[in-house]
């Protein structure tokens, strides 16, 4: 293991398990490279600090209880977490920035989950370098680039009688990944 390099990284994963696992794996790699790791997490789906004793943990209030979360669905929960975590996250990061010096290692960078839309603007206001981690597969980048082309050509949104077809003709030959992400488009007559 490398000696500590006197730089701290702040990791802010979204509280969904796949997002936390990816962020913690990245944290393990960066810790092995000598960085001190601080995990900022919501109170919804709290990680177990004993599983990562070499990380520091800071929680922020999100105001979401399990019963509320169970009625929202995934999209609603993502939107609510984005709204309710913005101010507590900014307060937490501001406190960490102001406590730099002395025994605290300087903050080298914030690495935040891409599902939180506010993190880069908060980091910019507080003059903290920031990166955004997209925890989905590399195929997301392909989908993100082709999506505007499909919209421009009128393939999406699907209107009329095909709107109720779960697999419109342009996507009929697609493969699904993780149950929700279209990852391959064939027979679509789309030029990129």
Automatic annotation (TrEMBL):
Keyword terms, alphabetized: Glycosyltransferase, Transferase
Organism lineage string: Eukaryota, Viridiplantae, Streptophyta, Embryophyta, Tracheophyta
The UniProt record lists the keyword Glycosyltransferase: yes
Organism in which the protein naturally occurs: Eucalyptus grandis
Family: Belongs to the UDP-glycosyltransferase family.
Recorded GO MF terms: glycosyltransferase activity
Designated name of the protein: Uncharacterized protein
PANTHER family recorded: GLUCOSYL/GLUCURONOSYL TRANSFERASES, UDP-GLYCOSYLTRANSFERASE 76F1-RELATED
């Amino acid at each position: 293991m490398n000696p500590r390099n006197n730089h701290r990284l702040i990791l802010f994963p979204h509280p969904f398990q796949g997002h936390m696992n990816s962020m913690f794996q990245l944290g393990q790699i960066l810790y092995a490279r000598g960085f001190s790791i601080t995990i900022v997490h919501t109170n919804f789906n709290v990680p177990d600090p004993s599983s990562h004793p070499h990380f520091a943990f800071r929680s922020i209030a999100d105001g979401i209880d399990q019963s509320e979360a169970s009625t929202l669905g995934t999209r609603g929960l993502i939107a609510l977490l984005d709204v309710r975590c913005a101010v507590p996250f900014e307060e937490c990061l501001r406190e960490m920035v102001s406590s730099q010096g002395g025994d605290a290692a300087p903050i080298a960078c914030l690495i935040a989950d891409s599902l939180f839309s506010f993190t880069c603007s908060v980091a910019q206001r507080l003059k903290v370098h920031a990166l955004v981690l997209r925890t989905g597969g590399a195929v997301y980048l392909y989908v993100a680039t082709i999506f505007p082309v499909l919209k421009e050509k009128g393939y999406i949104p699907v209107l009329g009688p095909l709107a109720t077809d779960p697999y419109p003709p342009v996507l009929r030959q697609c493969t699904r990944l993780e149950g929700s992400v279209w990852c391959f488009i064939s027979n679509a007559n789309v030029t990129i």
